[in-house]
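User: Could you check the structure of this?
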Amino acid sequence: MVLVATGVAAGLFGAGLMYLLFSVEHLAFGYDTGDLESGARQASDLRRMASLVTAGRPGVISRTLSSPQQRATRRSASARTGVKLR
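Assistant: Sure, the predicted structure tokens are below.
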């Protein structure tokens, strides 16, 4: 019974995330019908740029607000693995 409930919950959560994704796509590119590719092609250059800038903001903000301890941890991990993390 728990397995079935977990499956149903996961399916509903996935459906909700898909609805959220489609809503963000339509909001970002301003189209009502059709697929994402045609909506992105019809969007103005300014709208596409604004969508990218808006989508990148949370990453920039979280990177800026990360503690010195977190940055030191990333640097030491980079030194151990040889992979440059920015």
